[in-house]
Amino acid sequence: MTASGDKAALVAALRGVLPPDALLHATEDLRPYECDGLSAYRQLPMVVALPSTIEQVQEVMRLCHGYGVPVVARGAGTGLSGGALPRGDGLLLGLARFNRILGIDPANRTARVQPGVRNQAISEAARAHGLYYAPDPSSQIACTIGGNVAENSGGVHCLKYGLTVHNVLCIEVVTVEGERITIGSEALDSPGYDLLALMTGSEGMLGVIVEVTVRLLPLPERAQVILAAFDDIGRAGAAVAGIIAAGIVPAGLEMMDGPAIRAAEDFVHAGYPTGAAAILLCELDGTNEEVSEQIARVRQLLMEGGATEVRTARDEQERLTFWKGRKAAFPAVGRISPDYYCMDGTIPRRRLPEVLRRIAELSREYGLPVANVFHAGDGNLHPLILYDANKPGELERTEELGGRILELCVEVGGTITGEHGVGIEKINQMCVQFRPLELTQFHAVKAAFDPRGLLNPGKAVPTLHRCAEFGAMHVHHGQLKFPELERF
Amino acid sequence: MGGVDRTETLQAAVAAARSNGTALQIVGAGTKGFLGRPPVGEPLSLMGHAGILSYEPTELVITARSGTPLADVEAALAKHGQMLAFEPPHFGPDATVGGCVASGLSGPRRPYGGAVRDHVLGVRLLNGRGEVLRFGGEVMKNVAGYDLSRLMVGAMGTLGVLLDVSIKVLPRPPVEVTLRQASTAARAIEAMNRWAARPLPLSAAAFDGEHLHVRLSGTDSGVRAARSAIGGEAVEDGDGFWQRLREHRHAFFESPLPLWRLSVPPATPPLELPGKALIDWGGAQRWLLGETPAGQIRAAAAGAGGHATLFRNGDRSGDAFHPLARPVAALHRRLKAAFDPDGLFNRGRLYADL
């Protein structure tokens, strides 16, 4: 059968299970789905399905399974690694219509929600009970909980409150064959293998999440933030270690380097010291008494650690102002450069000075400026590479520089992605982080769920063949033999 | 921090078992041999494969070989004022890190500090093909590849031989106080959940049939303020109480009767089951002693949205762990085959067909 014949047959079959407004197949209707938050990669899907019931998802999956059509699930499309990049020969399964909060159980402190519910909407709904959902990825006003589970999203507060995997109790999943299964429960654990941990962060490769039950936490009585400036980034790193060594686990602990500070300050005027080499934002939360005691202790530690300036937010207004600069760091960098590329490595914190020095060397080598924003508490580093996509070859050089930064993270004992996922973006760097044996084990796990490889094919885990090709290319950094060839 | 790397010996033993078709039972100190279905196969001992490989207190991570005594790890952490926040039960003086992770058991701090699985950051393991594989790492945030490290937690060794494990650690709270007040099961459950919905520094809550015990952990002033909110009298040897509870040396556990562990949503009212009950984990873990038929206990746990494990004593030849729904059981079999295609490791320990 020809490709157009395939499409016609699939569309006809889908018409039998979806209402007309839940099925898109004309090119102009498909356009909004051609990319996610990583817009450098674009691909029109063959067809888009927008089901609104679990039964419809099951029917769609059964049909795709029968026709052998790949399926890519998508929430709000805010992902930064191209995890929801469609397939030209596949169906894009949009779950945004699953946007209802099904129930909040204040006694057990859980919320049962559909996957298309926005992260922040959960906390908004729980607030009436004095509760909230802790993981807070920076895109929380837009990103959906289904996508958060698929990517194991983090956030500013995950040092103290954990990642998505620590805050999800139960998910309903539709398998590649269209079967509905429950993984986890509203109890704190479940019998058998920890499939909940396995599904969390599996990037849509193992099943389609159609319902999520999350754990809610009591809203802290008080949160307060300290801003500290340093004239040396190594001293800022040492100060972070000093806080941890003193037995304090802050709710948030963020670092920005000079270029990031200046970009943020120019943009939102948060009052950051623009002459500093680094600033730290340290947020403490808990009961009034705990916060007062810890603020005093952290201030003292920061002064002893050589901070040139330490400011405690006087009130909630100033706390939000301090955070505003950090939260606006990405768009702020976007203002000073036509384009920027956000990396997502994690490193052992003690290697920070060395890693930043080597990133600066790479930045000079490639002639591309880099600003660094760092979740200092948990070692998650976001170098932002500034470039201009309109300059020929600059995107390619940026991606190569990004790749080398990620390889540096692996070299110092870290990882290529802390919270954004592998998707299509970092698939080559998976070949650096894992050996063929581990990749083979990943593929075996995938096959246990999806033997025909129809769920989000080509993402997250590279084939050994791809790694062999990447390895061969890799030896000749910057001197590719066929620069005109497309490389995915 | 001595110890030997026995990876090659273990790898050779797995290769030999594979070629001879011999089933292997993975054994550490044998402190948790009572758990699950009865072990079968030739023992593959992890004793001696020991040693702390790295511990950087300010990175909040420790990596140790699986045969390392849990007590050694805890002692190393204590020197730097740190701890395993999931308070794992030892069930014997020589309990190992590997057994702790494979059994996935957590102690009283679990509802507030997280479970074993919440703290495992990486593993090195031997799969059923005798391959040494490394997943995860020593960093807290890592989403590269499937989370196969956490998948090992509670798998009872059926997916592979753990070689070494990296675990997130936390600072020990500066102040801990245990409070006690007379209560009933229903009132205790209600109170534990009411407090848990407020920003109080709770770190344990249990009802032993007579008294509700609550532990507060945090800064001096924070604990003092919370204490007046909770009420009750201070227990002199609070640490001892929680340790006895964790290790099942509390008087409640002195019984030859079948001991069931019911894991349920924490606010579940007292379960209408005959037998003696102890409530831990702020209501989320219920221990039950008695001869009540398995079917009745499992129906009650499932009816509340949870599950039940025959934890100790009684007939283990059937299901010790709660039976799985059919499609989930099928996934388990395929996952087992993905790691251990010849079914070498801990055959039948978790479920009869794994």
Description:
The complex is a heterodimer of chains A (488) and B (354). In chain A, β18 (370-375) and β19 form a beta hairpin. Chain A has 17 helices and 19 strands. In chain A, the strands form 4 sheets. In chain A, strands 12, 13, 14, 15, 16, 17, 18 and 19 form an 8-stranded antiparallel β-sheet that branches. A 5-stranded antiparallel β-sheet of chain A has the order 5-6-10-8-9. Chain A is globular, with a radius of gyration of 23 Å. Chain A is an alpha+beta fold and 488 residues long. By secondary structure, chain B is α+β, with helices and mostly antiparallel strands. Among the domains of chain B are: 7-171, Uridine Diphospho-n-acetylenolpyruvylglucosamine Reductase, domain 3 (2-Layer Sandwich); 175-246, 2-Layer Sandwich (Alpha-Beta Plaits), CATH 3.30.70. Chain B has 11 helices and 17 strands. Chain B has helices at residues 7-20, 70-79, 97-103, 110-113, 116-119, 148-152, 185-196, 220-230, 238-246, 294-303, 326-339; strands at residues 24-27, 42-45, 52-56, 61-65, 82-83, 120-126, 132-136, 161-168, 170-171, 175-182, 202-207, 211-218, 233-234, 259-263, 276-280, 285-289, 307-312. In chain B, strands 3-4-8-6-7 form a 5-stranded antiparallel β-sheet. Classes of the chains: A alpha+beta (488), B alpha+beta (354). Chains A and B meet through β9, α7, α8, α10 and α16 of A and β7, α6, β9, α8 and α11 of B.
Q: What layout of secondary structure does this protein have?
A:
The complex is a heterodimer of chains A (488) and B (354).
Chain A: H1 3-15, E1 23-24, H2 27-30, E2 47-49, H3 54-67, E3 71-74, E4 91-94, E5 101-105, E6 110-113, H4 119-126, E7 131-132, H5 145-151, H6 158-161, E8 168-174, E9 180-184, H7 195-199, E10 208-215, E11 217-218, E12 222-230, H8 233-245, E13 252-257, H9 258-268, E14 278-286, H10 288-304, E15 309-312, H11 316-327, H12 329-336, E16 339-342, E17 345-346, H13 352-366, E18 370-375, E19 380-387, H14 394-411, H15 430-433, H16 436-449, H17 464-474
Parallel strand pairs in A: 2-4, 3-4
Antiparallel strand pairs in A: 1-2, 5-6, 6-10, 7-11, 8-9, 8-10, 12-14, 12-15, 13-14, 13-18, 16-19, 17-19, 18-19
Chain B: H1 7-20, E1 24-27, E2 42-45, E3 52-56, E4 61-65, H2 70-79, E5 82-83, H3 97-103, H4 110-113, H5 116-119, E6 120-126, E7 132-136, H6 148-152, E8 161-168, E9 170-171, E10 175-182, H7 185-196, E11 202-207, E12 211-218, H8 220-230, E13 233-234, H9 238-246, E14 259-263, E15 276-280, E16 285-289, H10 294-303, E17 307-312, H11 326-339
Parallel strand pairs in B: 1-2
Antiparallel strand pairs in B: 3-4, 4-8, 5-9, 6-7, 6-8, 10-12, 10-13, 11-12, 14-16, 14-17, 15-16
